[in-house]
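@here heads up, posting the sequence + SMILES for the zinc ion run so it's all in one place. Ping me if the SMILES looks off, I pulled it from an old spreadsheet.
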Amino acid sequence: MNNKKLYITTTLPYVNAEPHIGHALEFVQADAISRYFKSKLGKENVFFNVGTDEHGQKMFKKAQEEGLEIQEFVNKYAQRFKDFCKLFFVDYDFFYRTSDENHHKAAQEFWKRCKEKGDIYKKRYSGKYCVGCERYITEKELVDGKCPDHGTEPEEKDEENYFFKLTNYKDHLLKWLDSNPEVLKPKQKREELKRIIEEIEDISISRLRENLPWGIEVPDDPEQVFYVWFDALTNYVNVIGFGTDEEKLNEWWPGIQLFGPDNLRFQGVIWQGMLASVGLDHSQKLLEHGMVLGPDGTKMAKTKGNVISPFDQEEKFGAEIVRFYLLVGIPTFSDSAYKEDDLINMYNSRLANNFGNLLNRVIHLAQSKGVEINKEELVEQDFKRKVDSMREEIESYYNDYEIALAAGKIDELADWGNKYITEKEPWSKELDFDTCQNILNNLGYLLKTVIELYSPIVPESCSKAKIALERNEKIILFNKI
Ligand SMILES: [Zn+2]
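bot reply: prediction finished. Complex structure tokens:
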């Protein structure tokens, strides 16, 4: 990539249920990355997309269960996701909805181009179909005749569908992965991705309309509708001009894509094959975040009673603290248990006792000594160099999307500030004014750096901290819990 624009997108969650903690993780991670790069490249050079996937049989059934018109139903849940973003400070540039008319047109254009390329064909298909997965599943995958992910028996289906010739791109994708060893994070998932590519089969991408009235019409065949994810995946490029604005598309694509562990096949293989089919570059980066596990360290499930609700957590601790814990307490690229004790400890030690405490100490001293603390010319060179070199380290983590590691280093920087103040005793009556002024300006500089670097993670508190530091006004940002 040689342009300085950066495009980042989450996956689009299905709107058949309330947002869960996994959505929260993905959304806040993407938001933190977006905020960081906006601060580096300028707001206008970063585009951050989120949205909702609103088609499919699951949605259709759910709407009927709730006694709502389907459009009404998806509107309601799309709004829930928008509110959810607002609650957790997810400052997106665009909220993409696949029931939107513009999306239909762009998805149909995508289909046409794959078809022109010779990658779409029609064939009769029969098999076992899991509504939960929105796909046919093979005998091999079944456990006791049931879908292992949904625990339900698949439906027998026999119909004529369109297929996408993913097998055309097997060698191409293997070569791509081979020559782009850094494209997927975490690295250890590379083998899994390779294996999925090696096992590629052509995939069914349409359904009979009579079975699925809620979907996008296949071009030139009104009896068929898009298979839900074939339409949804195209959102990643539609939103930046695919089919409508080639110039814009070239400006922003390829982009950075975030997704969860159950999504590697779609994002890393099928979507990459679709991109190759229409002649677009592959994604710039594929970031597979971990799974938020229940407090007992196992996958959350209603039946196990270990489900953590982001809304409950927000009510209990406040949105920013939950956000902080998701970004810092949950490793960015691996599975981890959500534990309230860890949340409390981490919040108290890092934000209340370290960062917040340092801010209070410095402002308090500056006030009582009558010292201004925002004079960069008074910062000692050695001190500045040390802070700047730590900043570099932290930024290199951010540049590599390692949010939790970046946060760990920011904590070290604040801790160093607290040790420095204890060692230098700027409250001592023996200290002359100039020395005291230097010490406090050193710390002001350090705090300014901490605030800037923490901003992608705890944006609200940091904007308050910034104002307090600039005005030299006391503030309690983080009450201990
Ligand atoms: Zn299933």
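MO: Residues 387 and 446 are 6 Å apart (CA to CA).
MO: One more: The radius of gyration is 26 Å.
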